[in-house]
Automatic annotation (TrEMBL):
Stored InterPro entries: Tauto_MSAD, Tautomerase/MIF_sf
Gene3D superfamilies: Macrophage Migration Inhibitory Factor
Lineage: Bacteria, Pseudomonadati, Pseudomonadota, Alphaproteobacteria, Rhodospirillales
Name this polypeptide is given: Tautomerase family protein
Signal sequence, start to end: none
Length: 133
């Protein structure tokens, strides 16, 4: 049930955004224990000066094609699962849309199950009305 916010510079065509979205989803399914029909993404395209990043900090060099993926997940994953996801994601993105691994940054945050309401004003992930992970 992750929700991913994808931030990149404005100017990419719709097909690029679709392929970026598809590659992310494939990596989530392949390596992050996400069911195939669980797809929630928000793509933010930023004007010049609105997406600020260091071109060399812990990686790089980063180009103007830099993309930030902020994954909000409903439960924690192991370090091994996260590492596999990072590798899988940059591999898929390198294939399509041709994004360099140095231009991919990922941040994963986790939440409690009762932090999610998918519809109807109910805590969709909590069966008994309690809280938990």
């Amino acid at each position: 049930m992750p929700l991913t916010r994808i931030s990149l510079a404005r100017g990419k065509p719709p097909e690029y955004l679709r392929v970026l979205s598809d590659s992310l989803h494939r990596a989530l399914v392949d390596a992050f224990e996400v069911p195939p029909d669980d797809r929630f993404q928000v793509i933010h395209q930023h004007e010049p000066g609105e997406l600020v990043f260091d071109r060399h900090y812990l990686g790089g060099p980063r180009s103007d094609d830099f993309v930030l993926f902020q994954v909000t997940a409903g439960r924690p994953r192991s370090t091994a699962t996260k590492a596999a996801f990072y590798r899988c994601l940059v591999g898929h993105l390198a294939e399509a849309p041709g994004l360099r691994p140095e231009d991919v940054m990922v941040v994963i945050s986790t939440t409690w199950l009762d932090d999610w309401s998918f519809a109807g004003g109910v805590a969709s992930m909590v069966q008994d009305g309690g809280t938990g992970r």
